[in-house]
Write a structure and sequence with these properties.
By secondary structure, the protein is α+β, with helices and mostly antiparallel strands. It is globular. The chain is built from eleven helices and 17 strands. It binds 3-hydroxy-3-methylglutaryl-coenzyme A. 3-hydroxy-3-methylglutaryl-coenzyme A is lined by residues 31, 33-34, 37-39, 81, 112-113, 150-151, 154, 187, 198, 200-201, 203-204, 207, 235, 237-238, 241, 274, 276, 304-306. 3-hydroxy-3-methylglutaryl-coenzyme A binds next to α2, α6 and β12.
């Protein structure tokens, strides 16, 4: 008999600061409606110097470990494209900060915004084979583009941690999945660069090609009809992209797009900005937190990572999901961010160090549970706050 496997718990963390896009628009002399309506974004999270993907990933996962315990967690996957070392997995620091057992497999995965979905699929396969195992999957990223670029308003920062296990309390992921890979220069981050290189228009069309290609593969591999999917979560580099994706897929299958199927999923991304690998699962957090009527509903997921890889799959919401969701904590994390002026934001943006700069100490700024304290003997140091 096959085991139901999926997401049992899901927890969100973000950075210490926030920039209101009205301030950015005023500084740039841009109509703020371009951001609020054209991109569908209101604010973006901005990390302090003592935060990075390790601190955000550990902060997202800590409440899950506190709730379920660490003893059955056999694997920790950390997906990111904001890696802090070329060799050592960021997941190893997270493993220590969380106090996970030594008998736990730990690795970092990369393929732009897509990698958390590869991690989720690997986790599902592991639990299907060994139903007593639990797997922690974390997507954590800092989206950084050049100052004064067209992409600047789509920056952001955040992490989402998910516990994958048998008989999940939130969403059972169905086996059918459609994938689409095409090599394209739409977005990448060369070694040594702290900001991404992006061809914005190409990235939008590559994303739309990928959703259509992944859908066709999904259907060819036994995925359900379009009209059997009740809600959708799409990767959201900016929330208007989810609207574009939703319309493109509906047109492809000859359906009328129903935008009420995606509205709830955009609530957190609109406030936090792009969180790359975490963004799709932040959409899921928002949907579960906002919508009280999801018992037995089927959610379609589309994951996109530039470069490019897309995957489309579906999951069914467990009855009783309301008792496990963490809406209060997520809203508290969003409202705890300290508002920045444009001058403060630009200074933080300019002050990103490469570790080749040598040893340094980083003063405490953020209020999260974990901190990056600096570089010693060229090794990064982290501590509990
Ligand atoms: P842009 O060229 O400045 O913007 O950059 P635009 O001129 O295309 O305007 C954007 C929208 O605002 C348009 O709407 C305008 O009409 C509208 P659309 O035609 O698209 O529906 N607009 C207004 N609306 C209301 N009032 C106004 C007004 N003015 C204009 N006054 C772009 C836009 C997305 C290209 C840029 O922000 C960018 O380069 N972003 C980064 C790349 C990105 O996010 N790409 C998305 C797909 S790729 C992806 O998702 C992967 C990614 O997450 C990375 C990874 O995988 O690792 C990025």
């Amino acid at each position: 008999m096959s085991v139901a496997v999926g997401i049992h718990d899901l927890s969100v963390a973000t950075a210490a600061h926030v920039l209101d896009l009205d301030l950015l628009a005023a500084y740039q002399g841009v109509d703020p409606a371009k951001y609020h309506i054209g991109l569908g974004q209101d604010r973006m999270s901005v990390p302090g110097p003592d935060e990075d993907i390790v601190t955000m990933a550990a902060a997202a996962a800590q409440p899950i470990v506190e709730r379920v315990g660490a003893e059955n967690i056999r694997t920790l996957y950390l997906a990111t494209e904001s890696g802090v070392d070329q060799s050592k997995s960021a997941a190893v620091w997270v493993h220590r900060l969380l106090g996970l057992p030594a008998s736990c497999r730990v690795v970092e995965l990369k393929q732009a915004c897509y990698a958390a979905t590869a991690a989720l699929q690997a986790a599902l396969a592991q639990v299907a084979r060994s139903p007593q195992d639990e797997v922690l999957v974390i997507g954590a990223d800092i989206a950084r583009y050049d100052l004064d670029s067209a992409a600047e308003a789509t920056q952001g920062a955040g992490a989402v941690a998910m516990l994958v296990r048998a008989d999940p309390g939130l969403v059972t992921i169905e086996p059918a999945s459609g994938v689409f890979t095409a090599e394209v220069d739409d977005f990448w981050r060369p070694n040594g660069s702290s900001t991404a290189v992006v061809d914005g228009k190409l990235s939008v069309s590559a994303y739309l090609d990928a959703i259509v290609g992944a859908w066709d593969d999904y259907r060819a591999r036994g995925g359900v009809d379009y009209d059997r999917i009740d809600r959708w979560c799409h990767h959201q580099p900016f929330t208007k992209m989810a609207v574009k994706a939703h319309r493109a897929l509906a047109a492809h299958v000859g359906a009328e797009p129903d935008e009420s199927q995606i509205t709830a999923s955009t609530g957190y991304n609109r406030q936090l900005g792009n969180s790359y690998t975490a963004s799709l699962y932040l959409a899921l957090a928002a949907l579960l937190d906002e919508d009280d009527d999801l018992d037995g509903a089927r959610i379609g997921f589309f994951s996109y990572g530039s470069g490019s890889v897309g995957e489309l799959f579906a999951g069914v919401v467990s009855p009783g999901y309301r008792t496990l969701r963490r809406a209060e904590a997520t809203r508290a994390a969003l409202s705890a961010r300290r508002p920045l002026s444009v001058a403060e934001y630009r200074e933080l943006h300019a002050n990103v160090h490469a570790d080749d700069d040598g040893d340094r100490t980083v003063a405490p700024v953020s209020r999260g549970p974990f901190r990056f304290t600096g570089v010693e003997g060229r090794a990064r140091r982290y501590t509990r706050a």
